[in-house]
């Protein structure tokens, strides 16, 4: 599909213009030069008004001092003739077959930003990026990924802060390596103590029994001495008692009493021990918590990286207006530079390419105040326009050879013209003639 351009334009009595006729180059840069206040910008304002409608109409459209209403006459590359003339500057659009049309017909191929490129260039970086994403058809998808990345980033930030606090808390906790792993139960210690005391009590009973037998033996021996008549009977008993006594002493000699000192010390220090155990448990818990949050942080980091890769892949798969043009963190990036770091020519290239992408049918843009560019930059920009098949009509405060035409006092320098001094019954302009 071939884009539509401006073949000819004829302007009379608009703002500072008295009478101007221009035939812009089909591709490349047409520079309208001249000194200040000569009518250069009036040329661009006239084109914008002719093609863009009444919202581009200058607040004081008719040239000051002129009695004749403004007249605009444009011939487009698709054969349409666009005219505004008469007291109300009514619009008339005529196609090659003679059929009439209006603003709606022009709107099909005239991109509004092409008529007002500064509006795009002066917008914020995010607005420029949104415009680009919209025209390449990935804006909605990228918005979803942006929101996802932001949510993941915020979650990771919160998790990271918790992990930092947990790690700091864990480092500040005291640790007692000598403390047991589990809390000590007082009731368990008492139960163990009671069992030991019970066993010791049994041992004591056995010792007491041995002593009792010993006393019994002495009593019987005395009785043997005093009661000879019962000697035989008591001797038998004595022998038996001696045997029992020996057995009892032999059993008692092997018995060892268990100490309760350790349990008594544990009971006395149970609160201190348990305090250390709790401290160790708190430290272990804090370290485990910090480790878990750090793991979550790493997982969120991976999800953020995956989301960013999806955004990069989405942009790389899209058909961008320029090589090296992309969007990063919601900002336009060209050749690795954000808008405020781009050169003047790169800004114009980016703006022009994006505006063209908005409406490929529109093959021209209007550019004001190119005096910021040096000659070499102008040549490079013009060559790029020709390469892209784009038409740019621009103004520049200059009267040098880089200018396609020079405006002086409302006229094109070198064109024959007659000063219009009074109302005329009809215009002598025709399509393609001046």
From TrEMBL:
<feature type="domain" description="Endonuclease GajA/Old nuclease/RecF-like AAA">
    <location>
        <begin position="5"/>
        <end position="305"/>
    </location>
</feature>
<dbReference type="Pfam" id="PF13175">
    <property type="entry name" value="AAA_15"/>
</dbReference>
<dbReference type="InterPro" id="IPR027417">
    <property type="entry name" value="P-loop_NTPase"/>
</dbReference>
<dbReference type="InterPro" id="IPR041685">
    <property type="entry name" value="AAA_GajA/Old/RecF-like"/>
</dbReference>
<keyword id="KW-0175">Coiled coil</keyword>
<feature type="coiled-coil region">
    <location>
        <begin position="203"/>
        <end position="317"/>
    </location>
</feature>
<protein>
    <submittedName>
        <fullName>AAA family ATPase</fullName>
    </submittedName>
</protein>
């Amino acid at each position: 599909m071939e884009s539509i351009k401006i073949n000819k334009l004829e302007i009379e009595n608009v703002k500072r213009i008295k009478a101007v006729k221009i035939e812009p180059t089909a591709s490349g840069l047409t520079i309208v030069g001249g000194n200040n206040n000569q009518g250069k910008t009036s040329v661009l304002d006239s084109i914008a008004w002719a093609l863009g409608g009444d919202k581009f109409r200058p607040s004081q459209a008719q040239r000051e001092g002129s009695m004749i209403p403004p007249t605009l006459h444009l011939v487009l590359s698709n054969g349409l003739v666009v005219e505004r003339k008469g007291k109300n500057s009514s619009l008339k659009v005529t196609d090659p077959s003679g059929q009439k049309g209006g603003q709606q017909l022009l709107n099909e191929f005239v991109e509004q930003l092409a008529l007002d490129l500064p509006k795009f260039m002066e917008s914020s970086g995010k607005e420029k990026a949104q415009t680009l994403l919209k025209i390449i058809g990935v804006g909605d998808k990228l918005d979803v990924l942006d929101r996802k990345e932001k949510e993941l980033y915020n979650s990771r930030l919160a998790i990271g802060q918790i992990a930092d606090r947990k790690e700091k808390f864990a480092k500040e906790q005291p640790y007692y390596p000598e403390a047991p792993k589990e809390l000590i139960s007082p009731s368990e210690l008492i139960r163990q103590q009671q069992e030991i005391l019970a066993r010791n009590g049994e041992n004591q009973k056995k010792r007491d029994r041995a002593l009792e037998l010993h006393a019994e033996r002495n009593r019987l021996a005395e009785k043997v001495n005093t009661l000879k008549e019962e000697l035989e009977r008591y001797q038998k008993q004595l022998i038996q008692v001696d045997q029992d006594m020996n057995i009892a002493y032999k059993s008692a000699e092997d018995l060892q009493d268990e100490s309760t000192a350790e349990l008594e010390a544990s009971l006395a220090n149970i609160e201190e021990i348990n305090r250390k155990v709790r401290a160790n448990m708190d430290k272990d818990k804090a370290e485990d918590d910090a480790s878990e949050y750090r793991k979550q942080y790493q997982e969120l980091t991976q999800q953020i990286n995956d989301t960013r890769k999806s955004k990069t892949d989405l942009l790389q798969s899209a058909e961008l207006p320029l090589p090296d043009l992309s969007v990063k963190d919601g900002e336009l990036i060209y050749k690795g530079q954000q808008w405020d770091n781009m050169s003047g020519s790169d800004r114009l290239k980016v703006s022009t390419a994006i505006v063209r992408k908005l409406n490929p049918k529109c093959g021209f843009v209007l550019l004001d105040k190119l005096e910021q560019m040096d000659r070499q930059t102008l040549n490079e920009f013009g060559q790029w326009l020709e390469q892209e098949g784009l038409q740019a009509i621009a103004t520049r405060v200059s009267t040098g050879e880089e200018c396609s035409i020079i405006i002086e006092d409302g006229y094109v320098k070198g064109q024959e013209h007659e000063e219009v001094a009074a109302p005329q019954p009809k215009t002598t302009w025709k399509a393609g003639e001046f």
